[in-house]
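Open question from group meeting: does this chain pack into something compact, or does most of it stay loose? Before anyone orders reagents, we agreed to write out a predicted structure and look at it together. Recording both the input and the output here so the notebook holds the full record.
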Amino acid sequence: MTKQEKQSLKTKILESQRIKPYRPSQIRQDAQRDYLRLKQRIDQGENPSTLTKDFGKKIGITLLWIFVAILAMVLISFVL
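Structure tokens returned:
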């Protein structure tokens, strides 16, 4: 293989690995697809707020762990 062929092959490999740009038309298509999915869920009677239904549960668990950590620090300070 000649030096020129190696360079040509290397260039082809690099070009094939390049990330294709995300075109505005693709963004628009993705947005329309997501909107249609959400609209279908709403039309089926699902409340849009249920998309984040686990959020309150996660906050509650987080606050519980913070309380437990503070309680543990207070108990440790009394022992020491």
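Observations to bring back to the group:
The mean pLDDT is 79.
The chain has three helices and no strands.
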